[in-house]
Design brief:
Strand order of the largest sheet: 1-2
CATH architecture: Orthogonal Bundle
CATH class: Mainly Alpha
Helix content: over 70%
Structural class: mainly alpha
Shape: globular
Oligomer: single chain
Order of helices and strands: HEEHHHHHH
Strand content: 5-15%
Distance between the termini: 20 Å
Number of helices: 7
Low-confidence stretches: none
Radius of gyration: 16 Å
Mean pLDDT: 91
Largest sheet: 2 strands, antiparallel
């Protein structure tokens, strides 16, 4: 019972962190009246949730953070496509972190890089292009810079967190 409460508490903390970091501590660039690019650390708590608590908690963290964030600070209409992308940021690291890697650094890098590339570089721009007919060039060029930088920064931050005793036990998962 105690472990379930702890799990739920961490999920709630990750949701709150993601909402704050995404909606209030990110650089949001509108393109044609719609948020086209967001630069920040909002997906980091979702990735951590997936890695530390599993794919289901990661998916719930991403989905609830997106929905709560939209209610608190909408930019444009609600589209479930972006709730899906947000939840994938939690699902993929949860799956990748279960795979056998010889190195914690490589496992962490893959758990961060795969959703950053798959979701951040391909899926989100695809939805923005399909829903709003935004030009590919405008969508992809900034992401070609931000995705590698985010991947390196997130990997370094997560590995640093795993050195903190409170997170060390989770990092052994």
């Amino acid at each position: 019972m105690r472990e379930k409460v702890r799990h739920l508490a961490f999920t709630g903390i990750f949701i709150a962190m993601s909402v704050v970091l995404t909606r209030f501590a990110s650089l949001r660039i509108a393109i044609g009246g719609i948020e086209g690019i967001r630069i920040g650390f909002g997906t980091l708590p979702i990735i951590l949730s997936g890695m530390l608590l599993g794919s289901i908690s990661g998916a719930l963290t991403g989905a609830l953070a997106d929905i709560i964030g939209f209610v608190l600070s909408p930019m444009g209409p609600y589209f479930p496509h972006f709730t899906l992308t947000s939840s994938l940021y939690g699902v993929v690291p949860g799956i990748v972190s279960l795979l056998p890697f010889h190195s914690k650094t490589l496992r962490t890098f893959c758990a961060v890089a795969i959703p950053q590339v798959g979701v951040g570089l391909f899926l989100t721009p695809y939805f923005l292009h399909t829903l709003f007919d935004m030009p590919w060039k405008i969508l992809l060029v900034p992401r070609l810079v931000s995705v590698p930088l985010n991947t390196i920064a997130f990997t370094a931050l997560i590995l640093s967190l795993f050195r903190v005793p409170a997170f060390a036990a989770f990092g052994e998962r």
